[in-house]
Amino acid sequence: MRRRLATAAAAAVLLLAGCTSTEPMAARPVRPVPSFEDRSNHDGTSTPVADPIYPGYGNPALDVLHYGLTLSWDPQSRALTGKAAIRLRAVVAVPSIRLDFSPAYTLGGATVDDTPAAARLDGGDLVVDRALPAGAVATLVVGYAGTPAPVPMPSHRGDIEPLGLTVTDGGELWTMQEPYGASTWYPANDQPSDKALYDIAVTVPEGWAGIASGTPAGVQGNTFRYTATTPVASYLTTLAAGRYTKTELTGPHGLPVQLWTRTGVDDSGRLAALRRVPEYLQWLEDRFGRYPFPSAGVVVVPSRSAMETQQMVTVGGDVLRDAVVASSVLVHELAHQWFGDAVGPATWQDVWLNEGWASYIEQLYNGKGDPGAMERWERGARAQDADLRAKLGPPGHPRADSFAENNVYVCPALLLHELHKALGDAGFFALGRAWAAANAGTARDRAAFTAFVNRQTGRDFTALIDAWLDSPTTPS
């Protein structure tokens, strides 16, 4: 997720003249980097972990393997009608199936493995009265209808907006939902550790478009289909419905790229900013390896922020007004496709693992071309780091009421800068490529990252990583 625009603009101005690195190449041999193609096909299996920051969301006793979502939006009645077919695995024996789901909906009946099952809404949970033994795999199908209602975001950010599916005054739909807004439009195990496969079909009025995360899978009449064959965390899904214009581009190695702009709203300048997406993807691939998904895209919505939703980045129209800010934001969100989407955090304790990488890569891109820019950035960032640690605490221990504030962006970006200086360009970019590719489709924590860094580099960076993530003051 992107930090507030004022900070982005200031950073872009500060770093326009930066560079990737002036450090010498690492002397020790660089270990081989796995590729995304080395991975076997995923079945959606995850290792769910109870989230310590937002324990009210997610159910670590269940592992969702696949969501099949059939949705229909009526802007006149403002009714979202849905059917969710959810294939799940009981990690341990459970007395009932419990998933996160908004109380704004009315249930239309449920089955488990084609057998009727009693289902009810209990606060923010969908509860289905069907016990499952440990290891059992079952398919829950539930129908629902209602008017979407977002939930408050637990943060003090300057671009604060409600989380989840939002209805505009004109009856259009859009969503940004990090950390737990997915359950405002479908029953979800709404925690980052449970990644699943998706098939989404959304039916909209004549002349409208339905846009969702995943790979476009065709349009039949007014029904738009998308599929995700690489596991997706619930917060990384997206949905938009409205009057849109589609622009199709080609990215690196023939990668299909779809741009969705609001018809009659987004001007040529915004589209021009988006047309640079293939250029940004090529720059990222040159450093961090092949883009990890079958397609890429951007959908523009009426927001002040942006979000790294998987394969279909969600960007607020205001972000694209300034070309410099647009470039910075788009590189940040596209970098997340490697760092945060392909491999993400097991819990929100480690949101720094997403934002540190994307923030540092953003600075590298903004600063390309001037050998002194990163040194200037480091001086300014260290001063900011000291203030952030005093106000918000260290990045390895985020506060529940201060989600995704600048301490989890700036502070871990400085950590990565220290690794970059120690490893040089060859070692650092090899580390980034290897981390994203070797762990694609999974959720990881600090311990896994530290062990990987030490193994990949052949050096022990444990003390450095711990200091930057835990210290109440800026490490020397």
TrEMBL record:
Annotated spans, Disordered: 27-52
Record-stated family: Belongs to the peptidase M1 family.
One family name in Pfam for this protein: Peptidase_M1
CDD domains: M1_APN_like
Protein origin, superkingdom: Bacteria
Signal peptide interval: 1-26
EC number: 3.4.11.2
Cofactor: Zn(2+)
Catalysis performed (reactions): Release of an N-terminal amino acid, Xaa-|-Yaa- from a peptide, amide or arylamide. Xaa is preferably Ala, but may be most amino acids including Pro (slow action). When a terminal hydrophobic residue is followed by a prolyl residue, the two may be released as an intact Xaa-Pro dipeptide
Protein name: Aminopeptidase N
Organism per entry: Dactylosporangium salmoneum
Keyword list, A-Z: Aminopeptidase, Hydrolase, Metal-binding, Metalloprotease, Protease, Signal, Zinc
